[in-house]
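ugh ok so i messed up the first submission bc i forgot one of the chains. this is the corrected input, ALL of the components this time, i swear. 481 residues overall. if the numbers dont match what u have on ur side tell me asap before i send this to the collaborators (the ones from the other lab, u know who)
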Amino acid sequence: MEKIIEEKNQGTALTLEKDRKNTRNLYIESYGCQMNFSDSEIVASILAQEGFNTTNSLEEADLVLVNTCSIREKAELTVRKRLEKFNAIKKTRPHIRVGVLGCMAERLKSKLLEEERIVDMVVGPDAYKDLPNLIREVDEGRNAVNVILSKDETYGDVAPVRLNSNGVTAFVSITRGCDNMCTFCVVPFTRGRERSRDPQSIVQEVKELWEKGYREVTLLGQNVDSYLWYGGGLKKDFDAASDMQKATAVNFANLLALVAEAQPRMRIRFSTSNPQDMTLDVIETMARFKNICKYIHLPVQSGSDRILKAMNRLHTREEYFELINNIRTIIPDCAISQDIITGFPTETEEDHQDTLSLMDYVKYDFGFMFAYSERPGTLAARKLEDNIPEEVKKRRLSEVIDLQLKHSLKRTKEHLGKIEEVLIEGTSKKSELQWMGRNSQNTVVVFPKEHYAFGEFVMVRIEDCTSATLLGKAVGYSENN
Ligand code: SAH
Ligand code: F3S
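and heres the new structure output, hopefully the right one now
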């Protein structure tokens, strides 16, 4: 797609004039998980073929799309405020059309259109290829809705237009949907059943990214360790596949090795790993390839066996410790991060203490922590009363956050004095004279720019730290450069 845009820019004055007439401006805002940001790049690609240029300026927009998140109530409230603002703009610029994409579109379906009348178009996460038709409907004055979830859509054949990209790091989607049915989570309802993308199309996308100058990719899925390609189709139908399909199936460890081997200088990350699906194979593959980053995001949600069971997380506290021990034995310098929820229904002080003691055992490098937010339609909402008072949820949350900050500082201090490879991603937010990048463990490293350049792999001696950032000085190029 980028190529087509380039060619347009180089065209004659006449074709440029013609294109300008045909071209409308798309303004797209994304909320929530990395998958949403990645999906917006797919949407931009599909609409570029329909003559839409992307713009960062709301003033120039003809079409406004909001890629939305339903994971917590607060995420939905933020989006609603934005939708109200866009709706208000329509009063002065009536030609603007507003569409809602993503998880809120799927969850609320036509409610946003018919009852609340704040959007013109509602498009679920598997229906983006239908956008050109839906926009035509809207252009002709009709409302447009497509929230059909798919068995096989992975957008494997769409080359994303990289939006707001730093030109060095990119996301590559490898699975869509989730079959895990954690009782608190809305994702299985909004993103449908789990399916994996053809490994060849993944390898090809990573190759093209390398050729365009990208130096790091993050393989994305709700539950990447559950990746399974057997020629297409839903993960749940694998048992019914033919012997041939089973014999040639590609699992996540195989996929990691395929990508790492095909692009040996590209840094590879992945997210997210559900502990119940992470196998020794994956950890061993990470250890085998220098270019797979030593970092695992391993959400635990709770340290209490009783709560883990109520959440339908299919592992115990002991099994989680075993997994942590295996990671530490096989990859001693691996960073591990968490997601934790406080105040899940029925959580007692004792359960909460179990979470704190689990954190003390693991001493995570960093984490993403949330107070429980009941989501309509989930199993927890249907079966359990949201019975932990808001102030108790918040107090437990701040205890978890305080402990994490202590552990993060301990972890960053372990880097002091070491010389680590850093990929330069951009200028530091605090100083024009400093570069910002990340080490293999995903910790941000800041150091003086000197003669080093954007996109280079540099060896940096770590001299100081906060709980979130390492400070250092470059001592030369990495052999990967
Ligand atoms: N596997 C997913 C997890 C999706 S949700 C991924 O790829 O990231 C991200 C995190 O949000 C979860 O790990 C959980 O900690 C949190 N979360 C999900 N539902 C929640 C809810 N109802 N209330 C509070 N936090 C929630
Ligand atoms: Fe949600 Fe659990 Fe899947 S947190 S995305 S249902 S792994």
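quick check: The pocket of S-adenosyl-L-homocysteine (ligand 1) is lined by residues 33, 71-72, 184-185, 187, 222-223, 272, 299, 301, 339, 341, 370, 372-373, 375 (CB under 6 Å). that seems consistent at least. The chain has a mean pLDDT of 93.
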